[in-house]
Each structure stands twice: as structure tokens, then as C-alpha cells.
Amino acid sequence: MSTTDARSSTISDAQASEPEFLKRIFIRSQMSEFVKDPLLMARADGIHYWDVKGKQYLDALSGIYVASVGHNNRRVIDAIRQQMDQLTFSPVMHGSNTLAVKLANRLVELGPEGMGAVKLLSGGSETTEAAIKMARQYHKLTGNATKFKIISRYQSWHGSTLGSLSAGGLTSRRATSEPLAPGFIHVFPPTCYRCPFGKEYPSCDITCASLIGDVIELEDPSTVAAVMVEPIGHTGGIIDPPDEYLPMLRDLCDKHNVLLIFDEIITGIGRTGEMFAAQTFGVTPDMICLGKGLSGGYSPVAALMCSQVVADAFWGDPAVNPGFLEGHTFEGNPLSSAVGLAVLDEIVERDLCANVRKVGAHLRRGFEALQAKHDCIGDIRGKGLFQCIEFVADRNTRRQFDPPIGQTIGKHVLAHGLLTRFDPHWIAFGPPLIVTEKQIDDMLALLDQSITAITSAL
């Protein structure tokens, strides 16, 4: 071992926070800023984190909508330990393993009626990428080889791989990697609070949905493979669609033989109060992309669910039908599958979906109380334990702050021990599904203090 390797392997927690070592890791933000005041977590339990300095944080974000059943969950950890003594990797090129088969069947059992099969993967980007490929391959296998275009939305985020990034609609994320893959078309999201068409609900006739039908026809239905949406958009500020929106998409896709894909990487596995947002909204898509909460944060696991109709297209004579051509080294990993099964068992046996509905309603009341107290809160959006508040300088006109205050408040509340998702104009909560009403109150109190501190200085 070289001198450098030996030194690196014995870095203490305290040393790890020094700029010399921090410069060696890429993170999501600009590294030059990160090294100034690095956040390095050391341990976690329940809904709390502790950093390397011993400071405690309330986790109102489930890490990043991942720690669904809480940190240090003993059922999941015991499942990992037990599986490690049995099998940690199986030969994916030649078959699968019993844990993967069990997880696939469990997801189908829990999913909306009509789901038929599951492709297990490692992360959200892999899953949305696989959904794009499945849609295109499905149409080729069913005699519609010209259908390849994917319609998705501006302000959406579907992942970091080239295909998923191409489907995404965030200018800031897309620009650094352009040119992206061809065949992706974007439409406006259902942002009722800031309607891109200048209309008001419900007199708008749900233009944001009907326009997708127009786009399909203008592109030529024989070229469109799928419509991919998040049931509740995330990166645009928790975009909660009107009730009519997703049923209209279902009807439009049926009309034009276009597959409907729900990206439920965030909204799936209990976050909206049902196991899947598809069940919350009462709309069954052709495919559901799962990740984040399915893993609970314990081992990378994700899944692409498809309807029985779609699954049947990949079943047949290998001479003319090769099946679904998509593969990854850690797909259906037995250790990760054991984690997924334990997470699902925890949610079902503890009825955490009911807890999400109960505590989510409490969170909404808490946000409404903050809105009544602070004129800077213009809108509240989301469902279950996936909600946000948007900040405005003027409620009547919905004029936003310039400069924005969302990130300022978010950083202030983080400094005081609360982890949230914050953007220039909004802050979101997405705590573990085990959270209690008392813990929500503690989170809201910290947020209240930060809003007061920042706005009083304006």
C-alpha cells in the first residue's frame, strides 16, 4: 500500500472535514462552497441525524425522500444481516434469486390492479431510463416500430442518465450536458398557482392536460411512444395537479395507443398516503417507476412495474422476441431485495400509510397556521408527507421575492437543526413515514422561527 493509500484509509471523522480531504470528493453542489462549511453526517436514528461535530438534526426530508421507515430500523437491519449469511450476489446474466422473485411478486400484489411484472434495478435514474426503453421496445414488439417519442414536462426531474435527463425538464440540469438525446418533447406542467396559460382553475378546462392531446396529434400519434409524468411534480415546487388532470392523461394515452408512465421515485411507497400515488389519484398507468423509499436508504434498490398487457408483449419465442433487453450488474441483488421486502413489510404491518394520511393532515394544518401568521406564504401544495409552501412578496399578485428568500430560509433552518428541501421560492417537507404529530410540530416551530428571522430583516 502506498503512503497516500495508508494515510487515506485511516482518516478520522475530524480529519474528514478538513479541506485537504474534502477536495477529493465530488458532491452535488460547487465544491469550493462545500469546503467552507461542510455538512458531514456521522450517524442517524429514527427521524434524526447527527453530524461529525455531534449536532442533531430533525430529518424533515427523509435524507432525500429515501428513509421511508426511519433511520436505524431494526427490521431492515436484521433482514440485511440474515441475508448476508446466505447470498449477497447472484449471477444476473444466467438467472435471478428467490429474494428478487419474492420482491417482484410483492410489488405486483401491492400495486394497482392490472400490474403484471417488475424489472428490479438499482436506482431511480436506471428505472426511468428502463421505462423509456420498455415503452419503445413494447411498440416495436406490437407492430408499431415508428412510435419512439417521449412526452414529458418542463420543470420535471427524471434522473441523471442521458435518457432520463433528456426526459427531464430542468434547464439548469439539462444545459450542462447538452446536446441531449433526440425524441423527447416537453409540455407545461399543471402549475395551477402559476398557470403558464394565464388561466384560473376550474374555468381553465384543464388546458395543461388537453394540450398534451394536441401535442400527440401534432407530432403524429404513430411516432409517440409514451407520456412520462410525476403524479406530483417535485422540482417545480411540489406541483399537485387538479383532480381531472391524470384521468385526462389516461384517456388521451388510451385514445392514441400511447403508454402512460408514472415516475413515482418520490411519490411511491407510501409517501402520499397510499402505497402508490397511482392509488391516491385513482389512475392506473402502464408503468410505475419506483426507487428512493423502496430502499429505505439501506441498500440501493429500485423497480419498474408494468401492466400485464405490457408484460405480455415481452413473452414469447426467443427466436423472434428476445424479451426486455435491459440489464444492470446489481439488478435484483439478493441483499437489496431483502431490504425492499423488509421495507414493504414494515410499511404494511405498521400501517404507515394510515400514519402518513393522519400526520400529513396535521402537517397541512401546521402549514396553514404558518400561512395565517406570515404574509410571505402564498401557497401550500402536496399530499401526505410530501408538501411544500411557496414564498411570495405579495399574495394578491403572487409576485415572488427578488432576490428570492427560499434558500435563505432553508439554510437558516438547516443551521438550526432542521433538514428540508429548499429552492429559491419554496420549502418542502418529506419526513420519514414513521414521523409523529409532535415531531411535525417541532419541525414547524423551527421553520416558523427561521421565517420570522429572515423576513423581519427585509
Describe this structure in words.
The protein has two domains: 17-69 and 352-455, Alpha-Beta Complex (Aspartate Aminotransferase, domain 1), CATH 3.90.1150; 77-349, Type I PLP-dependent aspartate aminotransferase-like (Major domain) (Aspartate Aminotransferase, domain 2, 3-Layer(aba) Sandwich). It is of the alpha/beta class and 458 residues long. The chain has helices at residues 3-8, 13-16, 19-22, 31-34, 62-65, 74-84, 98-110, 124-141, 162-167, 171-175, 207-219, 245-255, 277-281, 308-313, 334-349, 352-373, 406-415, 437-455; strands spanning 41-45, 48-51, 56-59, 115-121, 149-153, 184-187, 224-229, 259-263, 287-290, 302-307, 377-383, 386-391, 418-419, 421-422, 426-429. It contains 18 helices and 15 strands. Residues 1-8 have low confidence and may be disordered.
CATH class of the largest domain: Alpha Beta
- CATH homologous superfamily caption of the largest domain: Type I PLP-dependent aspartate aminotransferase-like (Major domain)
Annotation field: number of helices: 18
Shape: globular
The residue-averaged pLDDT reads 94
Tell me the radius of gyration.
22 Å
Structural class: alpha/beta
Give start-end ranges of low-pLDDT stretches.
1-8
Calculate the terminal CA-CA distance, rounded to whole Å. Answer: 56 Å
What CATH architecture of the largest domain do you see?
A: 3-Layer(aba) Sandwich
